[in-house]
Amino acid sequence: MGADATPETIDLERIGEDVPLLEGIRTARAIRRLRSDPVPPGLIRKVCEAGTFAPSGGNRQPWIFVAVTEAARRSFVAERYRRAFETYIAPALEAAKDPAFPAAGRRNMQAALHLAEHLHEAPVHLFVAGYTRRGQPQVQALFPCIQNVLLACRAVGLGASLTTVHRAFGDEIDAFLGLPPETPSCALLPIGWPRGRHGRPPRRPVDECLHWERFGGAT
């Protein structure tokens, strides 16, 4: 959000509409340092609408979005997230004691730690849930939907990231969200105005990943 912009001055119809697709893809970073300023509900609706244009088998459209914005409810989620995150991050913290630990990995870990410590301040906790089929979440549809939401956040200037750490308390959090057992959450996207900015992240050259005809073939 620009220095002079306020939730009341944002043009919800136009914001993000002019960002070229490939530029958005290349510059959509996982942003875990977020400001606590409120995000207009219409903007959350807009990025969720982008999610609904993801493909799904049989056009079942299994996605459900639950946006948590009330401070007390965000604190409930954040407290459980931190407990799960402490267990999750412990091996990496131990590994980071080695001076040879990669600097990039250290930066990513610090950003993840910041998110865990400040999750309650993120103005929107967007949960993506979905109907199960044959007892299994339809992740083949839900994760393309999630990526669409993340790209839409990039387009409109919001910061966001994808985490599944809350699933350690999945049943409790899903019940708190009012989700029935047949529609479990699969991801949490903390969303807010970013501290910092989007930009092109470091990536290894595509020719190191792309193989022709068979793995190890000519690039």
Separation, N- and C-terminal Cα atoms: 42 Å
The ordered H/E elements are: HHEHHEEEHEHE
* DSSP helix fraction: 25-40%
Strand residue percentage: 5-15%
Oligomer category: single chain
Query: How many separate domains?
Result: 1
Q: In terms of structural class, how would the helical and strand content be classed?
A: alpha+beta
Mean pLDDT: 92
Query: How can the largest sheet be summarized?
Result: 4 strands, antiparallel
Description:
The model has no long low-confidence stretch (mean pLDDT 92). The longest helix is centred in the middle third of the chain and has 25 residues, at 71-95. The protein is α+β, with helices and mostly antiparallel strands and 219 residues long. Helix 2 (41-51) crosses helix 5 (139-156) and helix 3 runs antiparallel to helix 4. It starts with 20 loop residues before the first helix and ends in a 27-residue tail after the last strand. The chain is 38% helix and 12% strand. The strands form two sheets. A four-stranded antiparallel sheet has the order 1-2-6-5, with helices on one face. The chain is built from six helices and six strands, in the order H-H-E-H-H-E-E-E-H-E-H-E. The chain has helices at 21-26, 41-51, 71-95, 103-118, 139-156, 170-176, and strands spanning 63-68, 124-130, 132-133, 136-137, 159-160, 185-192. It has one domain: NADH Oxidase (3-Layer(aba) Sandwich).
